[in-house]
Amino acid sequence: MNDLNPITESQLMVNRRQFFGRSATGIGAAALGSLLQQDGLAGQTGGAFGGLGNLPHFAPKAKRVIYLFMNGAPTHTDLYDYKPLQQQLHGKPVPKDYVAGKRFSTMTGNPQGKLMLGPIEPFKQHGQSGAWVSNFMPHVAKVADDICFIKSMYTEQVNHAPAISFFMSGAEMPGRPTMGAWLSYGLGSDTDSLPSFVVMTSVSKGTTCGQIFYDFYWSSGFLPSRFQGVKFRAGGAPVLYLKNPSGITGQQRRGMLDDLSKLNQMRYAEFGDPEILTRISQYEMAYRMQTSVPELTDLSTEPKSVLDLYGPAVKERGSFAYNCLTARRLIERGTRFVQVMHAGWDQHGSVTTELYNQCRDTDQPSAGLIADLKQRGLLDDTLVIWGGEFGRTPFLQGALNNRKKWGRDHHPYAFTVWMAGGGVKPGMTYGASDDLGVNAVEDRVHVHDFQATLLHLLGIDHERFTYKFQGRRYRLTDVHGKIVKGILA
To answer: Were 226 and a residue from 170, 278, 353, 455 both cysteine, which residue would form a disulfide, CB within 3.0 to 4.6 Å?
Structure first.
């Protein structure tokens, strides 16, 4: 058998991707214009760096977001949603009319006959607004007049990961872009030296009910992957591989990146694959972060008065307090969306023990962040959000005679989220649950309504902000969502 001609052999070995890429400079080249338009690389940009030319749709009230997300679902009737009748019915079966036909987790099953559990700590009214806040949250209580409490939230999922995915991406199944990725894609960033979308996570020490932080909670989904959240680590270097290897100088690194960029640009011209652009941009971002991240994480310039706002754990890397202060420093430097996630709120059998730890670790830093932003003039155009994926049952999980093991199960039918700054009315309570905290009954707010309102505050019409994928135009709010006008300042 004669050997094949090298040219003929090369032609026979062309794979499918190469064939489509090279056909008349590639179908990829034919699609290049639309890819550039989708990726925010053509024409005028919405932000100083990146973004779409047609955004924002109207003048925004908020320019950036800090989302304090409590993984595991805080118990609304123990923290913010005061129900005197719940205390009066403590130890008695939950009234049938409140739970009839409702689906709960498999740990509860049929809720009929479950015993009501009164609030663990007493509630008091605070500030000129008279907001009800329990003794679990004394620091948040002090800034109640800066907060809008939404007490009529409800959702569709009863399990953690799908419910968190639903909040973050508008879909229960992973695969859609999360809100930070949407905003990075649409609005771009005000800095080229830090990521537009940053994620930080923490867990209370010694907790037995920690939640897993899945990467799809900050995924870019079907958007180009450069829009996904960049996770800052709790230990060691905040971002891996930022430091040059031993023996490599900054000048050498710059030369290597320049050469890599040329090679990648040649590849992109041939195939039009948007992930090649991601590779180029991420190399460049990593190079700039070699300088910006050490400066960002150096808290020595913060005065003691500011550190004291966030509490005693503020200098402890990986703590919720440290992450809250870092979030403020990030948005000051141009980051668009900071997602601060804290796990451990899944208190099926520890509401009388570990709930104290969760509140101790998050109460003062959350309030301190609001106070810090306010004193710097940043709260007016920074939207701060606090909440979880659902609430917890007003009835008991466990045995009434074993107080140390009292717990509450997952509860999607009513829960509380609060917002501050960024065009939201301060010092108000919006909506209400029923007199046992079981069902949202007044001015109900669905997850998609929450998302539509968030986008509106950022100057975005949620129905017009779409991305075409697999023949369909997708949006964060799916095909739902209405703006909650009652909370807009």
So the answer is: 278
